[in-house]
Amino acid sequence: MAEKMLVSGNEAVALAAFDCGVLRGTGYPGTPSSEILDEFSKLGGTAEWAPNEKVALEVAIGVAFARGRSLVTMKHVGLNVAADPLFTIAYCGTPGGLVIISADDPGMASSQNEQDNRRYAIAAGIPMLEPADSQQCYDFLCRAFTLSEQYRCPVLFRLTTRVCHSQCVIERRRNAAPAPAVKYEKDVKANVMIPAFARIAHHKLRAKLADIAAMNDSGDLVFETAGNTDLGIIATGISAMHAREAAPEASLLQIGLTYPLPMGRIRAFAAKVKRCFVIEEGDPVLADACRAAGIAVESKDEMFRFGELNVGRVRRMLNHDLSPEPVRPAGKPPQLCVGCPHRRTYEVLRDNQCIVAGDIGCYTLGVLPPFEAVDTCVCMGASITTGLGLRHALPEAEARRVVSVIGDSTFLHTGINGIVEMVYNRPATGHVVIILDNSITAMTGMQENPSTGRKLDHTPAPKVVIEDVVKAIGVDHVDICDPTLDREGFETILKQRLASNDLSVIIARRCCLIAAAKVRSYETAAKEEK
Ligand SMILES: Cc1ncc(C[n+]2csc(CCOP(=O)(O)OP(=O)(O)O)c2C)c(N)n1
Question: What is the overall mean pLDDT for the chain?
Answer without folding.
Answer: 97
